[in-house]
Amino acid sequence: MVCTPNALDFITPLTLSTLSKKSVFSNFFVEETGEWVNHVELGKWADAMIIAPATANSISKMATGRCDNLLIATYLSASCPIFFAPAMDLDMYQHPSTATNINQLIDFGNIELPATSGELASGLVGMGRMCEPEGIFQIVTDYFEFSNSLAGKKILVNAGPTHEKIDPVRFIGNYSSGKMGKAIANTLAERGANVNLVLGPVDTQGLSPKVNVTSVVSAQEMYDACNAIYPSCDAGILAAAVADFTPNEYSNEKLKKGNDNDFVLSMSRTKDVLASLGKSKLDHQVLIGFALETQDELNYAQKKLDNKNLDFIVLNSMNDKGAGFAKDTNKVTIIEKNGKTHYFDTKSKKEVSKDIVNLLQNYL
Ligand code: CTP
Hints:
Structural class: alpha/beta
Low-confidence stretches: none
Mean pLDDT: 93
Number of helices: 12
Bound molecules: cytidine-5'-triphosphate
CATH superfamily of the largest domain: CoaB-like
Number of strands: 21
Largest sheet: 8 strands, mixed
Radius of gyration: 24 Å
CATH topology of the largest domain: Rossmann fold
Strand content: 15-25%
């Protein structure tokens, strides 16, 4: 066990070692003996490293490599999977620098143990509470149980919105952030799959470096990229919010408003990416779609499942609190082609991605 100098203001090494019956290191030297603590050996010895709580300070040092204590030295030397559990006060957690640092750690291939909402040390209530120990235990044990469970499987995921260009300065788009599809791609990669993510025009922040990304802008590009990749895949999970219509004409010059009070844009239907994959799908291939509905949800989702030849469909209702675009949580219902329906509670998109991938694994 390694703790930072600041952690010693909260708890003594004696308490930690008495309760855990393990050695506790906090300095580069053992004071009594003057012996050097070999952080390289510690980092290489471990099968996993769990940094909990990971304060805003430690997270920023991990992101930049500022190595001024034994914990960060050990972290930089470790070659095992590294898990970190952000824990800090509400405003610190919401600060853009914290979000950037957490994304940087994920980009490095570290695994986030997501913070939850609840009572914080300051007495405020909100996001920033450390993932509960039971949650940490679950995520770490799942990681090792599932880490190679999708090895050798090639999986297509699409995510994000599409932008349909009108002129050099305007487009038609939607509010999709791509967060759900990115979470799915990360979960698949954590389980050893070879993941190809076709991503609409959103940033790649928070994506595991193990995910191969093809960036696209329009519905037609999304269609072409997915149709090129899917034939060699074992499964496809299509989470993108693809535009249903695209302008018939693109103006090379910026359209001027002139004296008109009305503007009529002529548009035509885009190709349905998911339906096209459903048509070409081979027996061994699995295909999963999403449905975003505002009314008569189960009925409409069931129709999409049948019409697009899917194995299962993930339904988001815009009527559910905690579900929808750009949120970090989602509430889904999954309908399988055999008629089985699974209702889930509101969860982080990461947790939802695991529910989806767990079900996919039954099909593969
Ligand atoms: N989809 C697609 N290509 C399109 C439109 C939708 O691949 N041109 C996919 C989405 O990625 C999603 C599923 O089809 O997996 C359902 O999308 P949704 O927007 O809920 O429904 P639509 O099929 O577009 O039907 P409607 O707009 O009538 O609800």
